[in-house]
Amino acid sequence: MKHEKKILRLNTQAFDEAWHLKYAYTHLNGNWSPAPWKKALMYFVIDWLSGSDEIMAQTSGSTGRPKKIRLQKKFMKASARMTLDFFSLKPGDKALLCLPIRYIAAKMMMVRAFTGKLDLYCIEPKLYPYSTWTPKLDFAAMTPAQTEKLLETKEGTAFLNRIKKLLLGGSSLSPLLEEKLQFLETDVWHSYGMTETMSHVALRKVNGTDKTNGFSALPGVSLSQNSEGCLRITAPHLGIDNMETHDVVELSGDGSFRVFGRTDNVINSGGVKLFPEQIEQKLAKWISVPFYLVAQPDNLLGERLLLQIESEPWPESRIEKLRQQMKLHLEKFEVPKEIVFVIAFRRTDSGKVVRER
């Protein structure tokens, strides 16, 4: 069997669309069987370069059942151009794709490569996306979970430092991860967006002297709120008109915003509305393993907070120490009524934890 490299390279500056179509069909119909992730990439290349005006995309499924939606290629190209301009990416710049192609973040990395004539290095989308096959990179996109795993090792940290600009998306950043990112040489941004907006429509600088606390909309994107405080997005160049999200936000006078949490996740405990995401930011100071808060039925309060921690059960002394920290630093109604340990959380393919009661 022919030796297969652990990387797939799409140099869209060096080769035209006809070459890439032939390249894709050769991979799919050759005498060897490429890895499934490579096959999926090649099918996307064929779909993207086909005569169809649309591409099928799938939501992540972290806040509900995954669903498929149709996206117009002209709007995807406009989104790609917006990102290329923001990050000052030029033809021949080297980019990394280490995300599952079934989701929008990976699809848009491919579209940016074709639109901006980038030299795209594709590696298997894993939780630890380390590779010795890539050169120094101008741009990469990862999930916070992938970045956190890389930061756990010296080789992973060195790999991150070989990337000039890193875009994180798909979930929130824990205070601990954000603290670690301050020591990277890489410029890091956190993105706000979803499948329906064809990846990000707002960005936040995470490290460096120009870091910010809130997300700022990209050029051509305007933001507002509905009566419940949820973010509304309008971006004519992306085909988006007053799209309502489920994210409750605080809009600042300078146009930036901070996300409190999703209406899907709000917990009504004794008449007090609690945003789990906000409380989790506080808890992250004392819990170093994955965790999340969910609602549990309560006869008196209606719903009460349940803390689920991904771990073997802790000793009682450690649990008691955590309870004391929570009593000291959380509001009374923010303290979880119960702590449950789960060996392994369910996750999406991109590594995002699925909240389950």
Structure explained in plain terms:
With 357 residues, this protein is of the alpha/beta class. It folds into 2 domains: 7-262, 3-Layer(aba) Sandwich (Rossmann fold); 266-342, 2-Layer Sandwich (GMP Synthetase, Chain A, domain 3), CATH 3.30.300.30. It is 27% helix and 31% strand. It contains 9 helices and 19 strands. An 8-stranded mixed sheet has the order 1-5-4-6-7-8-9-10. It has a 4-stranded antiparallel sheet with strand order 11-12-13-14. It has a 3-stranded mixed sheet with strand order 17-18-19, covered by helices on one side. Strand 15 (267-269) and strand 16 (272-274) form a beta hairpin. Helix 5 packs across helix 6. It is globular and about 65 Å long.
Which fold does the CATH topology of the largest domain refer to?
Rossmann fold
Q: Look at the structure and give the CATH class of the largest domain.
A: Alpha Beta
Counting H and I runs of at least 4 residues, what is the number of helices? Answer: 9
Please state the structural category: alpha/beta
Roughly what is the average pLDDT, rounded to an integer? 91
Secondary structure elements and pairings:
Layout: E1 7-11, H1 17-29, H2 36-48, E2 54-58, E3 68-72, H3 73-86, E4 94-97, H4 104-116, E5 119-123, E6 137-142, H5 144-151, H6 154-160, E7 163-168, H7 175-181, E8 187-194, E9 199-205, E10 216-217, E11 222-225, E12 230-235, E13 240-251, E14 257-262, E15 267-269, E16 272-274, H8 276-283, E17 291-298, E18 302-310, H9 316-329, E19 338-342
Parallel strand pairs: 4-5, 4-6, 6-7, 7-8, 18-19
Antiparallel strand pairs: 1-5, 2-3, 8-9, 9-10, 11-12, 12-13, 13-14, 15-16, 17-18
Helix pairs in contact: 1-2, 3-4, 5-6
